[in-house]
Amino acid sequence: MPSGRSRLLEDFRNNRFPNLQLRDLIGHIVEFSQDQHGSRFIQQKLERATPAERQMVFNEILQAAYQLMTDVFGNYVIQKFFEFGSLDQKLALATRIRGHVLPLALQMYGCRVIQKALESISSDQQVFVLSTHPYGCRVIQRILEHCTAEQTLPILEELHQHTEQLVQDQYGNYVIQHVLEHGRPEDKSKIVSEIRGKVLALSQHKFASNVVEKCVTHASRAERALLIDEVCCQNDGPHSALYTMMKDQYANYVVQKMIDMAEPAQRKIIMHKIRPHITTLRKYTYGKHILAKLEKYYLKNSPDLGPIGGPPNGML
């Protein structure tokens, strides 16, 4: 055909098939799905189709699933299966999404398919699973950036239910960091409240420590003061939480961030708490970072606190 369409599609478009049924489309499902009128026809028929008819359509679209997900008309046929398909069909389509999550999320039709998939598959297989997937975590970030408040609300609710697990996950921690950087104040506050009371433990965790740093950076002034206060006041056996954190390969970065972000009065408190440990900190690789940070602030802002080095014999 001159248009590149099959005769069947051409005849259908010219109303020569008034009683066309899904079974008449065998071998032409993908072509019809990518046509404006054909796609609408298949969508309408799928809503009332028998399981056998749906399976016939599904067998053809599964082979071209990715192509249809990114097609201006085909994506709607895929979405219909997430609405009206069987559980097996939904899961089969979900597996077609795997490995292509990022490009789909960044493509204007593909992101609609992912959104529909998230709405349609059971909640226990939904966002939490996607957030802990290397591509999925980026998808969630894109959804949080580009989707409407109405679409992101259920995703955020689910994230809040799993904050403690996600912050410790190698991919999930990025999703929580993203909310702290770009989210609404109320979502940031919910995350900060989950971190409070666990600052010491989470700061010593490879992935969660990054989230604690972001909390210190992006929390409100009052929340930040509480996080810093928790570290300054909490005792951890014979030593303070602050002392434990300063020697830790991950937590020392949280302490550095606290020194940077603290209000001057609170920074002075941190420095006085650190001061008795200066000699010990010199022995630790990570402690040296803290000392460098202290020297910077002592020299810059706090001549009244006196030199940091102490007497030549090392006694303070």
Automatic annotation (TrEMBL):
GO molecular function per UniProt: mRNA 3'-UTR binding
InterPro entries (UniProt xref): ARM-like (IPR011989), ARM-type_fold (IPR016024), PUM-HD (IPR033133), Pumilio_RNA-bd (IPR033712), Pumilio_RNA-bd_rpt (IPR001313)
A family per Pfam: PUF
PUM-HD domain location: 4-298
Keyword Repeat attached: yes
PROSITE patterns according to UniProt: PUM, PUM_HD
GO BP terms in the entry: miRNA processing; regulation of mRNA stability
Segments annotated as Pumilio repeats: 24-59, 60-95, 96-131, 158-193, 194-229, 230-272
CDD domains found in the cross-reference section: Pumilio
SUPFAM superfamilies attached to this UniProt entry: ARM repeat
Domain of life: Eukaryota
Keywords: Repeat
One GO cellular component, as annotated: cytosol
Name of the protein: PUM-HD domain-containing protein
Organism: Myodes glareolus (Bank vole)
